[in-house]
Amino acid sequence: MAEARRRLSPDDRRNELLALGAEVFGQRPYDEVRIDEIAERAGVSRALMYHYFPDKRAFFAAVVRAEGERLFEATNTPAVPGESLFDQVRAGVLAYLHYDEQHPHGAWAAYMSMARVDPVLRGIEDIDNDRQANRIIDRVTAGIDGLDGKVERDLRAAVYGWLAFTFEMCRQRLVDTSLDADFIADLCAHTLMDALGRVPGIPATLADALAPQRR
């Protein structure tokens, strides 16, 4: 006799399926994963699987979106009074690396999505980058009034470039776990300080906050 399916609330069932999807997509290429396999491993019917997700593409997009939400929360390190911008950025990068350590399959599922030319997945990536960039810009410009529009544009462009760099450094550590987390955190934090410090016309208060950490 087949084992009775566990009773879960709709939200709990959906979250369970997403967690399983992160595990499977993080271990194998997208094209090798079947919806039937996910349903079987979760102990649910194919019909219930499609009740939550209309097709594999939608399921994969939901997995990537869920991982992005978890990562965004995990890297929301609190600002400590008196802490330098460098230390704040470094703490955020370490949080990113620790998240990857604790959720390697989910991280790989998210990394895989970035290489796909799918407008839905690209849209998820854009949303995630926008949120991370906004959070960094808010931290960097805290207490600065009337920031010049051109300066803000250039700061934002530098932050987006830095996010791509940091994303790849963290991916490299998943590829090779012997890479030192402190080295990556220091490298990424120094890189952002240097990039922002080179933006023409930044306010003196921001330049002073960045200068001690630039090399």
UniProtKB/TrEMBL annotation:
DNA-binding region: 34-53
Signal sequence, renumbered to the chain: none
UniProt keyword annotation of rRNA-binding present: no
Pfam families named among the record's database cross-references: TetR_N (PF00440)
InterPro entries named among the record's database cross-references: Homeodomain-like_sf, HTH-type_TetR-like_transc_reg, HTH_TetR
UniProt GO MF annotations: DNA-binding transcription factor activity; transcription cis-regulatory region binding
Lineage: superkingdom: Bacteria
UniProt keyword terms in alphabetical order: DNA-binding
Annotated HTH tetR-type domain residues: 11-71
PANTHER family for this protein: HTH-TYPE TRANSCRIPTIONAL REGULATOR RUTR, TRANSCRIPTIONAL REGULATORY PROTEIN (PROBABLY TETR-FAMILY)-RELATED
Name of the protein this chain belongs to: Putative transcriptional regulatory protein (Probably TetR-family) [Mycobacterium tuberculosis H37Rv]
Species this chain originates from: Mycolicibacterium parafortuitum
Lineage: Bacteria, Bacillati, Actinomycetota, Actinomycetes, Mycobacteriales
